[in-house]
Amino acid sequence: MELDELRIDKWLWCARLFKTRTMAADACKGGKVKVNEVSMKPSHDVKCGEIISVQLGQLHKMVEVVSIPKSRVSPKDVPLIYNDLTPQEEYERIEFMHAYKVEYRDRGSGRPTKKRKKNTRQTEKRRLTISFIMATITGTYKGNLRNEMTHLQSGNTIVTDAPTDNHGMGAAFSPTDLTCAALAACMMTIMGINAQNQQINIDGTTYEVNKTMSADPRRIGQIDIIFSFPPIQYTEKQKVILRKAAESCPVGKSLHPDVKINLTLKFQD
To answer: pTM for the whole thing?
Structure first.
């Protein structure tokens, strides 16, 4: 049996968006539930056709109300209650965050439990199997050792030039400069993802990158990266999380093991 309207906290519970009605009510009170972009109290009566946005942890879920059930439905009947309007990009963002989530364990906390081991294996499996549609890049050789590359999705362009010690003018990033810059940006991105997960404020963090070339064969021999964090009191746990996040970045994992990476995190304690 269906109803014409129902309190939103109860509807969220009936639609299995929350495990308990109390959790649904608390989310409403905390401003995490909106109807047509307006925050709703738990007593708001839901009607068919309304668009509800719910903040579920890091996931911003958006649904269209299809029906008003009288009681909590089974998982297989959820599609009969609402249409999921959440963009696919939002689910991919959450998957990416989970894939590079850093787990922190206090020293001396003992051996990991079976559940913790299972979660770790699932995370590693997700890192191996996660698939993304990578943006296509096109490039044109402009002559005089200069390249121009275009990121098709955004239209942004990058110009590279050979360095002065290798027949170039050094008028732009060299290809190896871009490699080092990509490493730093990747580390910063993964730290940012984990900072969001752990509610750590790292806005305003700056970084410096220094590259040392090796010969025979010519290659990147060493990359020194220094991250300087804003004047905030970070706990030791937060510092460990940030360092582990930086060390887990995909670009770093893609570099040859002969490339020495010196990572420094500066905190203004």
So the answer is: 0.58
